[in-house]
Amino acid sequence: MTTPTAAAPGANPYGLIPALKEGGLISQSVFTILVLSLAISIFILFSKWLEQQRIINQAKKVRGSFWSSPNLRDAAGKLDKNSAYRQIVDDGLLAEEQHHLLTDPIDQHEWVQSSISRSTASIGAKLSSGLPFLATVGSVAPFVGLFGTVVGIYRALIKIGAAGQASIDAVAGPVGEALIMTALGLITAVPAVLAYNWLLRRNKVIMEGLFAFANDVHGYMVSEGKVRPAYGLTKAGQAKVATTASGVQTTKA
């Protein structure tokens, strides 16, 4: 029968570190996997939040001044170089310029729309990167913790069998190790699930705004600038757009 290693006076012989040392390679591996998963989940949460916040701030800039510009090139120049909204505009303008190079041309509006849609989809894919990891951690972490729990309980039963009786000294370490793994699995899984759902919801709102903007850009391009959204325009600008859009529409200033 083995006895617990003597602890220093005042030290807790059944704490986390002693439990991991006694648990061996399996317990240490489970603990490492869960801690790394938690750390990566937190990193993804903050990095994706910052990425989303940048696009939200870009959307405010678009609503404020983008559509008041005389043309798309001038409007794009007001946006940050790495702006998601500028990427959509630049890809649309590039598609418009290259349309005449097609050997088997399709309608220009279809070609431009296809290019803008691809650009918007690529932004959505970038926003969604990292979320599958959060979903995986949220689903798997409790079972990884449960595996550590099973190993701890098994070790406790082995000690009981070797000692011939269920003494506290024999089972305290393995049972404590099992409880630690259970708690750590939950601590890792719950934040990952909450972060996944929260980021997914924000992505949905952001993509709705991007799709609406892409539709506005497409309408502007295929109408030669006659169709544009009303926000960001003065009353005089709104009246001018409405009047030139069809030649018969009139608006009240």
From TrEMBL:
Pfam families the UniProt entry points to: MotA_ExbB
Places the protein is found: Cell inner membrane; Membrane
Major location (coarse): membrane
Membrane topology: Multi-pass membrane protein
Alphabetized UniProt keyword annotations: Cell inner membrane, Cell membrane, Membrane, Protein transport, Transmembrane, Transmembrane helix, Transport
Matches recorded under InterPro entries: ExbB/TolQ_transport (IPR050790), MotA_ExbB_proton_chnl (IPR002898)
Transmembrane region(s): 25-46, 133-158, 178-199
Top-rank lineage group of the source organism: Bacteria
Residue ranges constituting the MotA/TolQ/ExbB proton channel domain according to the UniProt record: 101-208
Signal sequence segment: none
Protein family (similarity comment): Belongs to the exbB/tolQ family.
Function according to Swiss-Prot or TrEMBL: Involved in the TonB-dependent energy-dependent transport of various receptor-bound substrates. Protects ExbD from proteolytic degradation and functionally stabilizes TonB.
Record text on subunit structure and interactions: The accessory proteins ExbB and ExbD seem to form a complex with TonB.
Protein name per the record: Biopolymer transport protein ExbB
Source species of the chain: Sphingomonas morindae
